[in-house]
C-alpha cells in the first residue's frame, strides 16, 4: 500500500510539473529567494523593495532618465504608480509600483509584449542604484 501511495504522489508531482511547463508558467527565482527576491513570471520581473512608494517612484524616474528612455506615462497616487517608457526599438517599458506598507513597495517591470528579462533586470538594477 505504501509503495502505491508513493507512486501516486510521484505521478501527481510529475503531472503538475508537466502542466506548468506546458503553459509557460515557470517561476524563476533570483539569487535572493523568498521575501524580497527577484521573480521572473509571465514576462514580468517583480521584487519587493524596502522603500516607500514615493522613493521607488522617484528612483524609477531617475533610472529611466539615466538610461535616456523617454517618459510616456507617469501616474501616481498614495497606493500605486504606473510609469511607461519606450526603447529606441519601440519596445514598450511598463513599470508598476504598489505600496505594501509605509516602508515597502512591490515593483513589476515588463519590457516588450512578451517580456525581456535582460532589459527588465537592467532597469531594476538602475532603480535600485537610486534607492
Topology of helices and strands:
Elements (H helix, E strand, L loop, with lengths): L1 H22 L4 E2 L9 E3 L2 E6 L3 H14 L4 E6 L3 E7 L5 E10 L2 E8 L5 H14 L1
Antiparallel strand pairs: 1-2, 2-3, 3-7, 4-5, 5-6, 6-7
Helix pairs in contact: 2-3
User: Structural class of the helices, strands and pairings?
Assistant: alpha+beta
Biggest sheet features: 7 strands, antiparallel
State the CATH class. Answer: Alpha Beta
How many structurally independent domains? Answer: 1
Would you tell me which CATH topology applies?
TATA-Binding Protein
From the 3D coordinates, which CATH architecture would you assign? 2-Layer Sandwich
**Strand tally:** 7
Strand content bin: 25-35%
Oligomer status: single chain
General shape = globular
How would you characterize this protein structure?
- The protein has helices at residues 2-23, 53-66, 117-130; strands at residues 28-29, 39-41, 44-49, 71-76, 80-86, 92-101, 104-111.
- Helix content is 38%, strand content 32%.
- It has a single domain (26-130), classed as 2-Layer Sandwich (TATA-Binding Protein).
- Strands 1-2-3-7-6-5-4 form a 7-stranded antiparallel β-sheet.
- It is α+β, with helices and mostly antiparallel strands and 131 residues long.
- It is globular.
- It contains 3 helices and 7 strands; from the N terminus they run H-E-E-E-H-E-E-E-E-H.
Amino acid at each position: 500500500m505504501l509503495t502505491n501511495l508513493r507512486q501516486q504522489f510521484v505521478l501527481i508531482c510529475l503531472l503538475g510539473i508537466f502542466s506548468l511547463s506546458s503553459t509557460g508558467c515557470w517561476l524563476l527565482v533570483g539569487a535572493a529567494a523568498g521575501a524580497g527576491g527577484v521573480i521572473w513570471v509571465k514576462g514580468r520581473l517583480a521584487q519587493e523593495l524596502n522603500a516607500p512608494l514615493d522613493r521607488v517612484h522617484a528612483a524609477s524616474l531617475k533610472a529611466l532618465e539615466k538610461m535616456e528612455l523617454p517618459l510616456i506615462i507617469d501616474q501616481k497616487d498614495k497606493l500605486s504608480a504606473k510609469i511607461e517608457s519606450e526603447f529606441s526599438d519601440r519596445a514598450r517599458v511598463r513599470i508598476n509600483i504598489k505600496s505594501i506598507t509605509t516602508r515597502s513597495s512591490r515593483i513589476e517591470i515588463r519590457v516588450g509584449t512578451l517580456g525581456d528579462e535582460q532589459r527588465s533586470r537592467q532597469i531594476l538594477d538602475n532603480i535600485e542604484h537610486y534607492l
